TrEMBL record:
<dbReference type="GO" id="GO:0016788">
    <property type="term" value="F:hydrolase activity, acting on ester bonds"/>
</dbReference>
<dbReference type="InterPro" id="IPR051058">
    <property type="entry name" value="GDSL_Est/Lipase"/>
</dbReference>
<protein>
    <submittedName>
        <fullName>Uncharacterized protein</fullName>
    </submittedName>
</protein>
<comment type="similarity">
    <text>Belongs to the 'GDSL' lipolytic enzyme family.</text>
</comment>
<keyword id="KW-0442">Lipid degradation</keyword>
<feature type="signal peptide">
    <location>
        <begin position="1"/>
        <end position="28"/>
    </location>
</feature>
<dbReference type="InterPro" id="IPR001087">
    <property type="entry name" value="GDSL"/>
</dbReference>
<dbReference type="InterPro" id="IPR036514">
    <property type="entry name" value="SGNH_hydro_sf"/>
</dbReference>
<keyword id="KW-0378">Hydrolase</keyword>
<keyword id="KW-0732">Signal</keyword>
<dbReference type="GO" id="GO:0016042">
    <property type="term" value="P:lipid catabolic process"/>
</dbReference>
<dbReference type="Pfam" id="PF00657">
    <property type="entry name" value="Lipase_GDSL"/>
</dbReference>
<keyword id="KW-0443">Lipid metabolism</keyword>
<dbReference type="InterPro" id="IPR035669">
    <property type="entry name" value="SGNH_plant_lipase-like"/>
</dbReference>
Length: 370
């Protein structure tokens, strides 16, 4: 007692702090981050696959700070996962298929996303060799085996339980399936509302599987305003109006997705799944581009034809000089500037954007309970 009482309160406090830092030192790295889904979040997996769904030629990546060259991201610069990694204080996740993903890099997490895929296996069949959702989940399991070999079973379980997960999928189930061609097989099978119900039930199975594999904080984004992308304005829109059937699809899908996530949380007894209403933040700058500093939310920065919405973004396309003035980088994908606005809402948006809570709240909560 006598010895202890000779410590000043300040000394004890700094002693406790030092211990805390030593104890947490082994885990001082940012939480791991795992990404699943389609081209909106693909960091370059498709570059390793024989598929046409890839962003591996200039001017893709023209504003990507480290290299200013294409990486497979469907953006002029950073995409949504990159910007979330930055919020976590982490480096960007590597594509799962990258040979650089080994050793300690495995602990950063991984990006399993693949452009062209959907909730359903028959979505994006024209892209042939892409990593479909069930396969992305198998890779997640495989990844955990590799991490286990590195840090052991119990540390691996912690890493996965404490990780942040992002999943963005569903848009292609409309654009590259139901509405791909007139009288598609799926549109003959289901009227649109029943198709949406079917998608939601299949999506729920994928999310349950993600939970079973250890995910405990999962950001689930809805689809964007599918009918308002430059590609649809060019092909289906009338005088710059958004294509109504695709807008109807998004309007059916997003609220049902949110309800399904809340239901899953109730069943699991915890807030595992977070509905990120990215469609709403996207709509904000589509309905009022100037307010967000955009010159246009209709014309793509890179492309050709009406709204620069036809065909792919290639070295021969029209390229806008100032990417920051465009909400859309190519015919389908937001510009880095738009991605920043979306991630800002993910971080600190109100409940209309993030249900039941935003990412800064999650990070604060998990820091307390960790
Ligand atoms: C997709 O394919 C995999 C592998 O064949 C299968 O296990 C899975 O059930 C399929 N998913 C759907 C929704 O049909
Ligand atoms: C979202 O995040 C901000 C902090 O950036 C916080 O003040 C706000 O209350 C949060 N909103 C909700 C609904 O959690």
């Amino acid at each position: 007692m006598a010895a202890l009482s000779s410590f000043s309160p300040l000394a004890i406090l700094s002693f406790v702090l030092v211990i805390a830092i030593i104890v947490s030192g082994a885990e001082a790295r940012p939480r791991a981050f795992f990404v699943f889904g389609d081209s909106l979040v693909d960091n370059g997996n498709n570059n390793y696959l024989a598929t046409t769904a890839r962003a591996d030629a200039p001017p893709y990546g023209i504003d990507y700070p480290p290299t200013h060259s294409p990486t497979g991201r469907f953006s002029n610069g950073y995409n949504i996962p990159d910007l979330i990694s930055q919020e976590l204080g982490a480096e960007s996740t590597l594509p799962y298929l990258s040979p650089e993903l080994r050793g300690n890099k495995l602990l950063v997490g991984a990006n399993f996303a693949s452009a062209g895929i959907g909730i359903l296996n028959d979505t994006g069949i024209q892209f042939v060799n892409v990593i479909r959702m069930y396969r992305q989940l198998e890779y997640f399991k495989e990844h955990q085996n590799r991490v286990r070999a590195l840090i052991g079973a119990s540390q691996t379980k912690n890493l996965v339980n404490q990780a942040l997960v992002l999943i963005t999928v569903g848009g292609n189930d409309f654009v590259n399936n139901y509405f791909l061609v007139p009288n598609s097989a799926r549109s003959r099978q289901y009227p649109l509302p029943q198709y949406v119900t079917y998608l939601i039930s299949e999506y729920q199975k994928l999310l349950q599987r993600l939970y079973d594999l250890g995910a405990r904080r999962v950001l689930v984004t809805g689809t964007g305003p599918l009918g308002c992308v430059p590609s649809e304005l060019a092909q289906r829109g009338r005088n710059g109006q958004c294509a109504p059937e695709l807008q109807r699809a998004a309007a059916l899908f997003n609220p049902q997705l949110e309800q399904m996530l809340l239901q899953l949380n109730r069943k699991l007894g915890r807030d595992v799944f977070i509905a990120a209403n990215t469609g709403k933040s996207h709509n904000d700058f589509i309905s009022n581009p100037q307010q967000f500093g955009f010159k246009t939310s209709q014309v793509a920065c890179c492309g050709q034809g009406p709204y620069n919405g036809l065909g792919l973004c290639t070295p021969l396309s029209n390229l806008c000089p100032n990417r920051g003035e465009y909400a859309f980088w190519d015919a389908f994908h937001p510009s880095e500037k738009a991605n920043r606005l979306i991630v800002k809402e993910i971080m600190s948006g109100s409940e209309a954007y993030m249900n039941p809570m935003n990412l800064s709240t999650i990070l604060a909560l998990d820091a307390i309970t960790a």
